[in-house]
Amino acid sequence: MRIALQEAALAAAEGEVPVGAVIVRGDEVLAQTHNRREQLADPTAHAEMLAIREAAAKLRSRRLTGCTLYVTLEPCPMCAGAMMMACLDTCWFGANDERQGCVESVYALPSDPAFYHPVRCYGGLLEDECKALLQTFFETRR
Fold this sequence. Notes:
The protein has 142 residues and is of the alpha/beta class. The protein has helices at residues 2-13, 37-40, 47-59, 77-85, 127-141; strands at 20-25, 28-34, 68-73, 90-95, 120-122. The longest helix is centred in the last third of the chain and has 15 residues, at 127-141.
C-alpha cells in the first residue's frame, strides 16, 4: 500500500484525483500506477483499470489468479467489475468511497453471489494516510 500511496501522490502532482494502485503476486510487483483520466482523456483510466491492464500484459493472461490489488480508494463499480473479470484473489483498499464505492460502501459487487468469481476485499489499510491525500487534493481545488 505504501507504493500505491506514492503513486497517488504522483497523480495529485499531475492534477489527477490522487488514487494509486499496485498489483502483486507473492513478492513480485506486477503493476503500479495511478489515475490518468485527465491526461489520457479516458474515463476508464482509473488506477485500478490501468494496473489490471499492465499486470495482465506482463503475465500474458487475462486471469490474474494469485494476485492482490492494493488501491488507495475503494473501487467504483467499473473497477470492482474489472477485478472480478480479471479473477483477482484479493483487494486491499485504504479509504472508503461513500458516494461510488462498490466493494462495501454503496454496494459489495465482488462478494455478490450472482457473479462467478468473488474477490475477497478488505478496507481501511493505511486509511488515514489515504484519506488525508484525497482531502488535501480536494481542499486545494475548492
